[in-house]
């Protein structure tokens, strides 16, 4: 369950991994949100482990390759359709499942050029560059009211989106294989989406 009582984050209490992390190059979700697993069950995003299989936006199982658990820093969490708490640079799968929507293109651009510290299955830290998707190859459009997003039940219009005062210290994301997508609270999102090995216009591996 989401606990809205957390205050602003400081450096005290952060793990070594979190201290190595650059919050300006991340896209993540608040704890307490449900990830749909490949077998139809759910796990809170903070409880998902490397090697788990999640359900991707195209109905296929996708393996969790790495965990992303950075500090929030000074970033704002946004609330989408009253259900999804996320950061402004995180891509959301569009309703046609042939591209992504982002709230802040500028924040997304910063994330794409950054190297991020991830957690492997053995708990060791791994530094990887986020490849992202290529505008012009994969659709990347503005997330705003009136747009359509992919959901577990098909698609839904964006009815509301707004900044929150929720300030957790730690955020969570998953790096997944396959289509590099998964569901959080029933909304399809990027799990380190990349179009060098997946064609989002066709919904299939290259």
Topology, element by element:
Elements lengths: L15 H5 L13 E3 L5 E3 L8 E3 L5 E8 L8 E4 L3 E4 L4 E2 L5 E4 L2 H8 L2 E5 L5 E5 L9 E4 L5 E4 L2 E4 L3 E3 L9 E4 L4 E4 L2 E4 L7 E2 L4 E2 L1
Parallel strand pairs: 8-11
Antiparallel strand pairs: 1-2, 3-4, 4-15, 5-6, 5-14, 7-8, 9-10, 12-13, 16-17, 18-19
Please give a structural write-up.
With 206 residues, the chain is mostly beta strands. It is 6% helix and 35% strand. The chain has two helices and 19 strands. It has helices at residues 16-20, 105-112, and strands at 34-36, 42-44, 53-55, 61-68, 77-80, 84-87, 92-93, 99-102, 115-119, 125-129, 139-142, 148-151, 154-157, 161-163, 173-176, 181-184, 187-190, 198-199, 204-205. It has a three-stranded antiparallel sheet with strand order 3-4-15, with no helix packed on it. Strands 6-5-14 form a three-stranded antiparallel sheet, with no helix packed on it. β9 (115-119) and β10 form a beta hairpin. The longest helix is centred in the middle third of the chain and has 8 residues, at 105-112. The relative contact order is 0.25. Residues 1-25 have low confidence and may be disordered.
